[in-house]
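Regulator of G-protein signaling 16: structure, please.
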Amino acid sequence: MSCWMPRCPALSMCRGLAALPITCLERAKDLKTRLGILLHKPELGHKLGSSSKLQLGSRRRDSSQEVLEWRESFDQLLKSKSGVNAFHTFLKTEFSEENLDFWLACEDFKKTRSKTKLASKANRIFEEFVQNEAPREVNIDHETREITRKNLSGATSACFNEAQAKTRTLMEKDSYPRFLKSASYQDMSRQAASRGTSKRSH
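Here you go.
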């Protein structure tokens, strides 16, 4: 319905909003933003947030040194919670975040103590990441896929070891070097180096 019509509800709403103080409108926008962030929080530990920018290095809890250490080795990156988040955000731009999600799911799986839970979790991970045409199928060879399938019959905390190792190697040799060369990480490392220099000069 067009706003020129008499007694138009949309026109009344527009006039009503225009009459509100600017501070009220700003608060409403702020509340909407906060609600949006809460609604997008992940429910599963291995599913990470989908931040559109790699600005994690600017958070207070992420030391400048930590950001610079990510380039020392892939292990250093995986040891850092912020590094894993930044890498995951980068992988999303390449549509290959399932590799890291699978690796993280395997790490979580190894901590499972209950044999019943171990079996159900193993099947869930296999169906999501490993089997042919899985919803988030990782890039592993047929032999590794079959070995993992056989491991499910007597699921132990080590049943995904081979598939996890293959996926890790793929990320280390392929995605990790591109992450270090990406404009986002280059910007983060420059900021980190700059903050480090600034701290030393004081």
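Notes: Residues 1-6, 8-26, 28-62 have pLDDT under 50 and may be disordered.
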